[in-house]
Amino acid sequence: MKLSLIKLDLQERSDAVMTVYRELSAKGTGALHANQAKHFHVGATKILHFLNPELFIIIDSNASRAFRTAWKLPFRGTTQPGYSAHLYLECMKLVQMDISTYGLERFRALEPGVPVTRIYDKLTFITGSK
129 with 62: CB under 8 angstroms? Predict the structure, then answer.
């Protein structure tokens, strides 16, 4: 719970990230989504972000559109088609790279006191909504 996206070795922790994502987004009996026939992709990312806002990013329709446009990731139209634990991990890697390239202190200065993943979420929301 004290891990930060900036400091985390995603290569080392990739299995853990993808496992927890798969568990939270699963469909079927015992699923978190009210409609158990559907995966709970956006909800999974929101739960993860709520649990640790310094580590996990939120991927909603605007964020998926931003990642699809800027990074050519295989999101298709909405957040559901093409969505996967592997793609979530790839997005986390890109966020890490973006923040490192921009500079962590400069990035934090955009909105002091706010978790970096929340700042990034706001930027993807704006980018994806245009």
Answer: yes
Whole-prediction pTM:
0.88
Q: What is the dihedral of CA 104, 109, 113, 118, to 10 degrees?
A: -70
What does DSSP assign to residue 58? P
Nearest to 52 by CA among 94, 21, 98: 21
What percent of the chain is predicted at pLDDT more than 70?
Answer: 88
Half-sphere exposure of 47 (CA within 13 A, CB side): 14
> How far apart are alpha carbons 43 and 49 in whole angstroms?
10
pLDDT at residue 88 in the model: 93
pLDDT, tens digit, for every residue of 47-98? 999 999 999 999 988 888 888 777 666 666 554 556 889 999 999 999 999 9
Q: What b/e readout covers 6-20, taking b as 16+ CB neighbours within 10 angstroms?
A: beeeeeeebeebbeb
Residue ranges per structural domain of the chain: 10-129
